[in-house]
Specification:
GO terms for molecular function: coenzyme-B sulfoethylthiotransferase activity. This is Methyl-coenzyme M reductase subunit A. By secondary structure, the protein is an all-alpha fold. The chain is built from seven helices and no strands. Helix 4 packs antiparallel against helix 5. The longest helix has 27 residues.
Amino acid sequence: TQYATAAYTDNILDEFTYYGMDYIKDKYGVNWQAPSPKDKVKPTQEIVNDIAGECTLNAMEQYEQFPTALEDHFGGSQRASVIAACSGLTTSIATGNSNAGLNGWYLSMLMHKEGWSRLGFFGYDLQDQCGSTNSLSVRPDEGRIGEFPWSKLPKL
């Protein structure tokens, strides 16, 4: 569904992302049209929660106003990806941090699943749910963030 999303949902994804751009400009003073390093927002979990949460809730409300778009987007898989994409894009642009954008993407997926109880059908939601372990907000392997555990193993 990721490959077809841009072609089938272009205007909707644009609309949701422009909403996010307006949100970060109004709330944080980030001008996406003329980016500047001094405009970046510190990438904290609170910022990720705020930006991704706002984008996700706006997109879900928009989809609920147009039920045919809601179900036409592949029963949910494309819809989940579109909502997560606008959340991740907006968070990344505001913070200048790709990991913050990744956290925004996965937060959006979790909010979507919590709000509508599914992300897709026929198992297509698995691809969208397995991201939290790839995010540094989760402390994998007893908290050794960014460290390859096998690099400390003895050479045999």
